[in-house]
Amino acid sequence: MAQKQALLAVHQALEKSFKAIEKQQSLWDSTLLECTHLLSSSSNLAEQLRACNNVDFKTTPFREFPDLKHRLKYKLTQAMEINLEKLEEKMNVLQRVRDTTSNQVATCFQMYELHADTIGLTSVLEHSSLYPSVADMLEWLQDIERFYQSQYLGRKTLLQNINCDNLQNIQALPQSWNRVSEQMDQDLIQDTLLKVAFFLESRQGS
Counting C-beta atoms within 10 Å of the first and last residue's C-beta, which end of the chain has fewer, N or C? Predict the structure, then answer.
């Protein structure tokens, strides 16, 4: 009886963790999409600003407007700074996803460690075709936690080295951002949620 209750408590903790991750992943994906738009816009602005810097307006029909180049550069730089500020705000959202997930995973592991001796190793390793083992699900939670940690830090480090004085880096931001994505399997979390779908469904109302 004690073992059954202990296993139930761990299953409830796992269920709570994966359901929380479902919500966090939705927020993560939507935030990354918003970042992609901002990165593309910033890259285009940097390209325009570099072109503006390289043009001698005195040899063009715009020579009659001596302050035009200065005004264009100011407008483009201001728009780029706004984009970079918005990207920083999006990084704060990604950080919250990472921290929320880490806290949830830690809570789940604390619950498991509390009941580990009562449950026993055999029950922890038990699984079926539809029902993953507790050991597998705990490992998957750690994989998800590492994913968010690595992806967040990679993107944070990238943006920390960006400023409006280095237009070449800003122009290359979309490619640099994609390289961070390529460091890990971006389908990891969705694939994991599919693996636990039957587990979560079976627990509805329990």
Answer: N
Neighbours of 152 (CB within 10 A): 19
Do 122 and 134 form a contact (C-beta atoms < 8 A)?
no
User: What's the pLDDT at 1?
Assistant: 63
61 pLDDT exceeds 90?
no
pLDDT band at 131 (very low <50, low <70, confident <90, very high): confident
- The percentage of the chain sitting over the pLDDT mark of 70, rounded to a whole number, equals 93
CA angle 187, 188, 190 (to 5 degrees): 65
